[in-house]
Amino acid sequence: MIQISDLHKKFGELHVLKGINEHITQGEVVVIIGPSGSGKSTLLRCLNLLEHPTSGEIVFEGITITDQRNDINKLREKMGMVFQQFNLFPHKTVLENITLAPINVKNIKKDEAEKIAFKLLDRIGLRDKANSYPNQLSGGQKQRIAIARALAMSPDVMLFDEPTSALDPEMVGEVLDVMKELAGDGMTMVVVTHEMGFAKEVGTRVLFMDEGKVVEKGSPEEIFCNPKNPRTKDFLAKVL
Ligand code: ADP
Ligand code: MG
């Protein structure tokens, strides 16, 4: 589904991604772990071209998206992204947040978009919040709405950048539960997280990044029970 070849990203002199090569197949839940500043967010942002790679190639569903001639907006419709800071529109209701892109970008009729939105709200257990504004919601509820908003575009892959890092501890579980359900439904997911429990339980593959490279990868068991690279061992010793 996504083929990443020799991907590099520089910010001026700072060489942040130093040759990433990965193949993500349909239905996989790829968990990316690694120390702060290792390039995890930059990699996710390159995948949907929020950052333009300095060199290398990304092919998504057969289309070379790093080729500037291709339509970035079409690509973004197919990749949902969820950030640490929920990024909901504060002056729009929950329902409007979820229906805005389907109506304006996909030209779906308002009542059809609302039908889809209510289905998603049912799925995350927040139908009763349809007419609330983001500042009337808890952090966990905001993040579940942000996930529903991304799903409203029927993406083929969901990218998550530390979706639970800004939450109070008691709200982490409800967001992870929504993500687990999504994974169970077969969604292709790329998840940057420090939630090692989630990585072990839901991840089909774990990538450990350090200093702009994937230095070790494998199944959750391989990475967590039998890490080989000293830098992976060192990192896990600090977080587990
Ligand atoms: P991680 O998500 O693993 O913590 P990031 O991808 O956010 O790491 O950042 C990797 C490095 O790139 C850091 O040194 C960070 O300061 C730098 N960086 C990220 N985004 C930018 C940017 N837009 N401009 C300049 N430097 C950046
Ligand atoms: Mg980050």
Give the key terms.
single chain; 240 residues; alpha/beta; Rossmann fold; six-stranded mixed β-sheet; four-stranded antiparallel β-sheet; 9 helices; binds adenosine-5'-diphosphate; binds magnesium ion; ABC_ATPase_HisP-typ; ATP-binding; nucleotide-binding
Short description:
By secondary structure, the chain is of the alpha/beta class. The protein has helices at 40-47, 72-78, 94-104, 110-123, 139-151, 169-184, 196-202, 220-225, 230-239, and strands spanning 2-11, 14-24, 29-33, 55-60, 63-64, 79-82, 157-161, 188-192, 205-210, 213-218. Helix 3 packs parallel to helix 5 and helix 5 runs parallel beside helix 6.
> Do you know the CATH topology?
Rossmann fold
Helix content: 25-40%
Total strands: the figure is 10
Question: Which stretches are low in confidence, meaning pLDDT under 50 for 5 or more residues running?
Answer: none
Strand content: 25-35%
Query: Strands of the largest sheet, in order across it?
Result: 6-7-8-3-9-10
- Given this structure, which CATH class is correct? Alpha Beta
Radius of gyration, CA atoms, in whole angstroms: 18 Å
**Ligand catalogue:** adenosine-5'-diphosphate, magnesium ion
Q: What is the subunit organization of this protein?
A: single chain
**Shape descriptor:** globular
| CATH second-level architecture | 3-Layer(aba) Sandwich
> What's the order of the H and E elements?
EEEHEEHEHHHEHEHEEHH
Sheet having the most strands: 6 strands, mixed
Structural class: alpha/beta
- By CATH, the superfamily comes out as P-loop containing nucleotide triphosphate hydrolases
Mean pLDDT: 96
InterPro entries: AAA+_ATPase (IPR003593), ABC_ATPase_HisP-typ (IPR030679), ABC_transporter-like_ATP-bd (IPR003439), ABC_transporter-like_CS (IPR017871), MetN_ABC_transporter-like (IPR050086), P-loop_NTPase (IPR027417)
Protein name: Polar amino acid transport system ATP-binding protein
GO molecular function: ABC-type amino acid transporter activity; ATP binding; ATP hydrolysis activity
Family: Belongs to the ABC transporter superfamily.
